[in-house]
Design brief:
- The chain is mostly helical and 138 residues long.
- Helices cover 80% and strands 0% of the residues.
- Helix 1 runs antiparallel to helix 2.
């Protein structure tokens, strides 16, 4: 029996939510882990000393599964934190590069402005000298 790529009858009729952020997923996993751990603690308290070896083994396996899941959640958090730090560092590099470029442009504008001011001053001085010479010749 083959299924068409877009037709999956095992999927519920409700549309899935769009992808959640990693942080939201991690928060949900933590909540599930806390709930399961609280449930196990309640069971242990209720059963107390009357636990059988089989029940102990089952609970130990369950607890070990919880521990491994928690380790994976912590790894995901660490990975996301590293990615955020890396993105922030990269943005800071871009910002530094942008600042350097703006500084270079401002210096070029200052240089152009000062050269233009010198040319204007020289032209005004030359006109002034020419004007004085014209006045002296009269």
């Amino acid at each position: 029996m083959t299924r068409e790529p877009g037709n999956n009858s095992a999927v519920s009729a409700q549309p899935r939510k769009k992808s959640q952020t990693t942080k939201q997923t991690i928060q949900r996993l933590k909540a599930i882990l806390q709930s399961r751990l609280a449930h196990l603690e309640t069971q242990i308290d209720q059963i107390g000393e009357e636990l059988t070896a089989l029940g102990n083994e089952r609970d130990i396996r369950s607890t070990n599964t919880l521990v491994r899941t928690l380790e994976k959640v912590l790894e995901l958090e660490h990975k996301e934190r590293k990615q955020r730090t890396s993105r922030a560092r990269q943005n800071r590099k871009f910002n530094d590069a942008d600042r350097a470029e703006i500084t270079r442009r401002i210096e070029n504008l200052r240089l152009e402005h000062s050269e233009a001011a010198e040319r204007l001053a020289a032209a005004a001085a030359a006109r002034h000298e020419d004007g004085l010479d014209d006045l002296g010749a009269e």
